[in-house]
Amino acid sequence: MRDDPTIDLSAIARDAMQKYGFHPGFPASVVREVDALSGEVPSAGDTALRDLRACLWSSIDNIDSLDLDQIEYCEPGPDGEIHVRVAIADVDFFVPKASATDRHAAHNGTSVYTGVVTFPMLPDRLSKGMSSLLPGQDARAIVIEYTVLPGGDVARGQLYRAVVANKAKLVYEEVGDWLDGKGPAPALVRDVPGLQEQIHLQTEAVIRLRNRRMEQGALDLRTIEASPVMEEGAVRDLVVQEENTARFIIEEFMIAANGTMVAYLGTAGVPMIQRVVRTPKYWEEIVSTAASYGETLPLEPDSKALSRFLTRQRTADPERFPDLSLTVVKLMGPGEYVMLEPGEPPFGHFGLAVTDYTHGTAPNRRYVDLVNQRMIKAVIEGDEPPYDADELAMLAEWLSGREKASQKVERFMRKAAAAVLLQGRIGETFEAFVTGASEKGTYVRLVAPPAEGRVMQGEHGLRVGMRVRVRLIRTDPYNAFIDFACTGRLPG
Fold it and tell me: What is the SS3 assignment for 427?
């Protein structure tokens, strides 16, 4: 059955954006400002930029992504070292502080990806064009260097401005299948001389980085966030993003690059915005959750012990692991941005098992990354910082709120799209897992399609983790409601 043509998910998405305080479109002042940009190509003779176009840079992203912020390149070093360069798009060059485009980006704070329609932080002419690290064009970038040692530790390196050229835009699924032995090497990897060896070297660096973080207590969490598959404006399916080695490459290089940025700003003695996940204030409930699985955690927060517990559960019960992950994520509390003065002790990121962390590798998509980029460029060029501590503190608070609001929009739209997909299946029965059971309500996730909804009938006695059979009784895309009746419990 085709979707109801009277349900306009794009309109629902725009309404959700406005409800949570976003401006879903660009004002005329921003359009005029961006249209007036020349799209200046970096000159090879610009002595302020290192010419690194000859390096075999590549990117890995979603198949339809054009707002490319990050490209990577590795070289082998002495004694088993791997030297890493991560180039970040120089968005600040095109978006001066306090410009109309900057003010709009600061208000929204982030691009919002609803699965139905994307609301970019910057106009496409910038984020998908002039300030993107797309193949086939020279681009300005901030390059972050660090060295991965054989044991996985990171030796921080330099930051500097450069001109770069992306040689290959690769896709997560294709590269991941190849690296994980599920498919052939992508055509670009085969055709670009040296690229196979380059990706294998990147993979070796990432294995070291990831193993080291896991040893230090990083949390290997996996929650299910099903995104709609859209065809001609209609919802055709819900898909869950699968982990693979290609995604690990981008994640680990990003984490190490962000840590290197923090070290660089710290050495310069300037205030900065860091990304933190504080020590969980609901640790007692995490301990109780572990006890319900027959496991004992220390009475004081211990990321290594929690990491070991999660690893065991992921191996023992992979089907229910996403629901355990979601429970732990909620009890840990949200990430947030905070301003740190020079020399002030860092809060750390409990989930990543790192002490110094920020967001600085996606300035086309997140405003805090653009702020951090401006701070870095000022240090590189010996200028006064463009923001003082008070400004950074206000921005940290505002952008933490914008992130939470964007997550609410995205979560609402995932549910709205799922309601549209299921609207023709009222009365059908599905297998599901109980994902939440409290005074606020009882919730389930269907096995297929992976939609979530509330149990309105027969919910008494249900507990998180139970496998049940539910009947769909109502959908409401406008309010993102999917309601079920529990018709029975299943073994396992």
Answer: coil
